[in-house]
Amino acid sequence: MSAPRAGPARPAPRGGSSKVAEPHLLESAASDAIEHLHPLLQRLLQTTGAALLDADTLDPWLARPGTAMLVFADEPDRQKETLDLAVIVPELHAARRGAFRVALLLPALARGVAPRYGFARWPAFVLLRDGRYLGAVDGLRDWGAYLDALDALLAAQPTRPPSVGIAVRAAQAAPPCH
Prior knowledge:
By secondary structure, the protein is α/β, with parallel strands linked by helices. The protein is built from 7 helices and 5 strands; from the N terminus they run H-H-H-E-H-E-H-E-H-E-E-H. The protein has helices at 23-28, 31-35, 39-48, 58-63, 81-95, 107-113, 143-155, and strands at 51-53, 67-72, 101-105, 124-129, 132-138. A 5-stranded mixed beta sheet has the order 1-3-2-4-5. The termini are far apart.
């Protein structure tokens, strides 16, 4: 089964979102990647008009104005909860229609990009406004908790993403005192 590459033209709602799939982004992603996605991830792309991003399209997509949800998916065989998020994201998108656009990162790229945003659990999504970090929702939650977290992020001011804890040592550190 193959996800459609574009839907009918619709005016862009607030937040720069659109139900129309972004054909130029989908085309530049590996064309057979969509066909090899789990059907629930294909449904996420189709129902939200999400872009399927690759290394070449990620930064230009993030640089677009408006509010954006970046979905971090792992292989469903490795992380079964990925399929739960594939169902939840379209519902969140429908519940807050027009508030944000959506993009899906395939597992290899998602694992490489995740350290930028410092979330601890998978699956996860990150919200950005005008390319700037608003926050992340990681792991699975109850529906009400998802809506509360999403609403808080949509109302948030951009901030610096949390960093992953990496020890930093000076190259010429003084010897320890005994």
